[in-house]
Specification:
The protein is mainly α. It has one domain. Helices cover 63% and strands 11% of the residues. A 3-stranded mixed β-sheet has the order 1-2-3. A two-stranded antiparallel ribbon has the order 4-5. The longest helix is centred in the middle third of the chain and has 27 residues. It is globular, with a radius of gyration of 19 Å. It starts with a helix and ends with a strand.
Length: 193
C-alpha cells in the first residue's frame, strides 16, 4: 500500500512540474517542435541529463542498485512505434505523460487524446499476434557500454556503461544551457507565451 501511495504522490508532483514548465500546453509543444520556442526543450534535456548523471553516478557509488535498471529491447517495431508517437505528439501537442497531466488540469482536448491512445492500445492488443508473427517484435535489449552487474549485453563491451551514461547526461545538460530560449527563424521573432 505504501508503494501505491508513494507512486500517487510522485506522479502528482511530476504532473505538477509538467504543468509548471508548460508541457501540458499543446501550443508550447508545437512551438518547441517547430523550433521557435525552446524553453520546454531545454527543460526536457536538463531533466534527462540530470537523471542520467544521477542514476549512473549512483550506480558507480553503490547508491543505486543496477538491478533496477530497465532497458527496452531494440527491434524494428520500437522504431516504428517511436515514429508513430512522434507524429501523434506533433499532431496533438501531447505525449502520454503530458496528456494525462493536461487532463488533470482540466483540458478537454487531453481527454480526447487519452481516449485515442486507449483506442490505439486496444487495436495493438487485438492485432498483437499478427505483429508478433511478422518478426517486427524480435530483438535484444542492449546498452551502449557495459554496466557492471547489469543483465544486458553492451553494443560496445569495451566502453564502461556508467561513464558513457554520465558523459551523455552531461552533454544533455550542456546542450540545455547552451540553447537559447527562442530562435529567430527567417526573421520572424517568436512571441512570448
Amino acid at each position: 500500500m505504501t508503494g501505491i501511495l508513494l507512486a500517487i504522490v510522485i506522479g502528482a508532483a511530476f504532473g505538477a512540474v509538467l504543468d509548471r514548465v508548460g508541457a501540458t500546453n499543446p501550443n508550447l509543444i508545437g512551438k518547441m517542435l517547430n523550433l521557435t520556442n525552446l524553453h520546454l526543450m531545454k527543460a526536457i534535456l536538463l531533466a534527462i541529463g540530470t537523471g542520467s548523471v544521477l542514476m549512473f553516478a549512483g550506480q558507480m557509488l553503490g547508491l543505486v542498485e543496477v538491478g533496477h535498471m530497465s532497458v527496452k529491447t531494440a527491434y524494428v517495431g520500437v522504431f516504428i512505434g517511436g515514429l508513430m508517437l512522434g507524429v501523434g505528439w506533433a499532431a496533438s501537442g501531447f505525449c502520454p505523460g503530458t496528456g494525462v497531466a493536461a487532463a488533470a488540469s482540466g483540458r478537454r482536448d487531453a481527454l480526447m487524446f487519452i481516449a485515442g491512445g486507449l483506442l490505439g492500445a486496444a487495436a495493438y492488443m487485438a492485432t498483437y499476434p499478427m505483429w508478433k508473427a511478422s518478426g517486427l517484435l524480435s530483438g535484444k535489449a542492449l546498452t551502449l557500454g557495459a554496466v557492471p552487474g547489469a543483465k544486458y549485453d553492451a553494443l560496445f563491451p569495451s566502453l564502461p556503461g556508467d561513464i558513457v551514461g554520465i558523459v551523455l547526461g552531461a552533454a544533455f545538460i550542456a546542450v540545455a544551457f547552451a540553447l537559447p530560449s527562442r530562435l529567430d527563424l527567417g526573421g520572424q521573432k517568436a512571441t512570448a507565451t
